[in-house]
Amino acid sequence: MSLSASSLAQELKTQALANAQRSGSEGDALAALEAANFPERKTERWKYTSLQALADGHLNAIADGEISQPLPALSEHVVTINNGQLVSHNLPDGVTLSHDGPAINGLQTPFAFYNSAVASQPVVLTVAANTRIEQPIHVQIQSASDAPAHCNPRLVVVLNQGAEAAVIEHYHGQGEALTNAVTALVTADNAQLTHYRLQGEQASSLHIGTLIIDQQGISKVDSYQLMTGNRLRRNDVRALVSKSGAELNMKGIFVVRDKTHVDNQLCVEHSVPNCESDQNFKGLAGENGKAVFNGRIHIHPGASGTNAELSNKNLLLNPGAEINTKPELEIYNDDVKCAHGTTVGQLDAMQQFYLQSRGIPAAEAKRMLSLGFVNELLMTLPHEKVAEWATPWLEAELAHTTPAGESAA
Questions:
Q1: Angle 401-406-409 (CA atoms, 0-180°, nearest 5)?
Q2: Model pTM?
Q3: Which of 11, 45, 324, 370 has the most Cβ atoms closer than 10 angstroms to its Cβ?
Q4: Residues contacting residue 319 through CB under 8 Å, at least 6 positions apart
C-alpha cells in the first residue's frame, strides 16, 4: 500500500488518536497528541526519512508475537519487557520498580506524544539516594510480530541525590514489529549515570524512539549509543542540561548495510551557566544503506561559561551508500566555548592496497579498516560485559554474519 506523504500523515494521526481514545487516554497526553502534526515530506526534521513503511498499517495492531530468540543477559540484574509489557525483573537492593513516575519533560515528536497517551505499563526504575549499584541493570526491550503491528514501551530511570548506576537499554525486534519507544533519564545532584542504548533489531523490523536526558541536578551522564539500520529507524535524543555544573557525554556508532536506514536527531539544550557537553558519533554505510545524522547544540541566553563540542565522522563503504550529516550551533550568549564538525569520506585506497599486498583478501581488508575507524569509541566502553557484546556485534555487521545467540540485523 502506498499513500502520499500528506495522506499518510493524516492516516497515522487518525490511527493514533483512535488508539489513544480506545485506551482511555485523557488530559495532557491526549491533548498533546491532538495538537501534534505527523511529519510530511516538507517537514524539515524528517526530510531524509520516509514513513511510507508505516502505510502497511502497523498502528492498527498491537504486537503480541513470541520472542523466539531472546537477548543474552549482560548482567545478573535483568528487566525484561516484551511487546511493551513487563515480563520479569531481578533488581538489586536500592533500586525499586513501579509504574508511576515523574512527568517526562522535553517531549516533542508526535510519536512520543502517542506513546505518552497509550503506554499502559511504563517501567520506572528509581535508584535510592546515596546508593551505588555495582553491576549494570540490563533492560531488555523486545518485540515480535509476523504481521505489521506495534508496541509502546516506556522506560523512566530516576537517580536520586548521590546515586550511581549503569543502565543498559537493549532492543531486539523480530519480524515486522514497530517499536515506538520513549526513555527518560532523570538525574539529581551528585548523581552519576552510565547509560547504554543498544539497538540491533532485525532488518525487517522498525524502531521510532525518543530519549530524554533530564539533568535536573549537578550530575554526570555518560551515554553510549550503538545501533544498526533496519527498515526504518528514527532516534530523537534531547538532553536538558538544567543545573550549573552538570556534565554530559554522548558517544555512538551507527552502521547501515544493504537497504537499511537510520536517522539520528540529537539536540543538547544548555539553559544554565557553566555546564559541559560532548557529542562524538561515528557512522558506517555500505551497499545501499542510508544514514542521517543531525546534531544540534542550543545555547540559551543565560548559559554563559558553557563548553560544548560535537563531532560526527562517517565512512562510505560503497558507491551506493548515503550519509546525510548536519551539525548545528544555535548560540545566544557570547561567553561560551563551542566547536562542531562533521566529515564524510571513504576508505583509504592505499591502506587497502597495503593490506592486500600482505595477502589479506579485499573484503577482510575493508572490514579491518572499518573496524579500526570506530574502534576508539568501542575502547571507551567502561563495562566489560557490554564491550564483550559490542565487539562481535560490530564485526558481524561489517562481515554480514551472525554472532552466537543473536539474529542477523
A1: 55
A2: 0.95
A3: 370
A4: none
